Amino acid sequence: MKDSSIYILIAIPFFFALIGLEWLIARYYNKKVYGLNDTVTNLSIGVGNQVIGLFLKLILIGAYIAIYENFAVFHFENSFVAFLVGTVLFDFIFYWAHRWGHEINFFWGAHIVHHQSEHYNLSVALRQSWFHNLLSFWMFLPIPLLGIDPVVFLGVNAFITLYQFWIHTELIGKLGPIEWIFNTPSAHRVHHSTNPQYLDKNYGGLFIIWDRLFGTYQEEVEVPVYGITTPLKSWNPIWANFHFYLDVFKVGKQKSIGMKLKILFWDGPSQLGKWLDVKLENQIIKVQTLRTNTKIYIISQFVLLLCGAIVYMAFFAEISVVYRLGFLALILFTMWSISALFEKKRWVNWTEVPRLLLICSLLNVMYYLQFVNWFNVCLVATASATILSIIWWIWHWKSESQTQVG
Questions:
Q1: Confidence at residue 229, expressed as pLDDT on a 0 to 100 scale
Q2: How far is CA 87 from CA 83, 142, 161, 206, in A?
Q3: How many domains does the chain have?
């Protein structure tokens, strides 16, 4: 059975077409809604969500199927009825999973990555946690228990996930009566804001009625300020996914076991902030001025990363575990290198050429051993791309190295 990744693969061209359209419209109206470093980081985190999700889904879908086949109390005969019931049930559970993702540190540590961007645009919709699904999937297990077929569940999951893409925009205003029932760009802008009256509001995925029923609805009444209350001073996708748990560890390491558990599984991030002495001056300064050729190089490497990730997802089932793990490591390394370029880290000067050679070598070895056909074409294409990238990198290395940090 195919999982919902197939829907995401199909949707990728539409995602980028709509992101491009939003960028063009914003430029026409002189609105600054995109930044290169922020957008590339958002999309890199989205890539990580998908490629790491390939491993997690083996566990999550397996658990779902096992419960459906062995413990379901009844089964829906009509797939359309199952889809409607599954949609309402999924969104209701999503509301609570999302709410706990803000109110409990254990879950917020994973979900925080989605809120770190200080812009609000369609690329933010793709900025999703790498492991939040692993922490929260158990909340959705009543769905197979109530007889929703796994195929229907995956369709519902994809539908509600894809629905939430378009609501991440500043270019669409309020939508009248629709605001009473469905989640909209206006309602979700509130959710992503750090304005005091907007904090911890509007958790619904598809429907906003859950927020109205449970007292967490807030209308958009003032201009939102986006991000998190303690901004993340880094473009590193890996750090973005794990930094909050380090804060929790710092607070809890000198506490009793009972207090540790309370901080992690009962308290929320606002309580953690009272314990934590945050020193923003020691964090990385995110705003860096980059030369044009560096920006072009970063874009080229991100495009190669994206293409590689799409191929990785498409052929994931056909390659061995060794290559799955090897290419996952290279994808993560490439994200890390791109973030280091944004932050002008000196160490990237010494790792970039080996990274390019390693990717070229591993790709051709794997292709030769597992696919064979068109190997000569693959070898020439990847070798040419690698040589061009190395020449490009060496060309601007010295000019950039003078402005780099530790």
A1: 87
A2: 6, 13, 11, 9
A3: 2
Token pair, residue 137, equals 């999937």
CA distance 169 to 26: 10
193 strand-pairing partners: 226
**pTM for the predicted model, two decimal places:** 0.90
* Residue 192 within any structural domain of the chain: yes
Nearest-Å Rg of the Cα atoms of the chain is 22
Which residue range forms the structural domain that includes residue 110?
Answer: 5-214
Q: Return the number of other C-beta atoms located less than 10 Å from residue 52's C-beta.
A: 19
Looking at the fold, whether 23 and 137 belong to one and the same domain comes out as yes
What is the tens place of the pLDDT at every residue in 221-257? 999 999 998 888 899 999 999 999 988 887 777 778 7
Residue that has been written with the tokens 């060309």 in this structure: 395
pLDDT over 70 at 404, yes or no: no
- Token digits of residue 184: 């909209």
Asked, for residue 392, whether it belongs to a domain, the answer is yes
Q: Is residue 282 part of a domain?
A: no
Both structure tokens of 238:
């890996």
Residue 230 lies inside a defined structural domain of this protein: no
Do 307 and 203 fall within a single domain?
A: no
Question: DSSP per residue over 142-211, as a string?
Answer: HHHHTT--HHHHHHHHHHHHHHTTTTS-SS----GGGGGTB--HHHHHHHTB-SGGGTT----SSBSHHH
Exposed, middle or buried, 331 (CB in 10 Å: 0-12/13-18/19+)? Answer: buried
Nearest by Cα to 162 from 15, 365, 356, 330: 15
Count other Cβ atoms within 10 Å, centred on residue 171. 15
Q: Residue 111 and residue 245: Cα distance in Å, rounded?
A: 11
State whether residue 71 is helix, strand or coil: helix
For every residue of 298-343, DSSP letters joined together read HHHHHHHHHHHHHHHHHTGGGS-HHHHHHHHHHHHHHHHHHHHHHT
Of the residues 214, 234, 264, which one is the last residue of a structural domain? 214
Q: Which of 181, 199, 214 is the last residue of a domain?
A: 214
Can you tell me the distance from the alpha carbon of 203 to that of 211, in angstroms, rounded to the nearest whole number?
Answer: 7
CA 109 to chain centre: 13
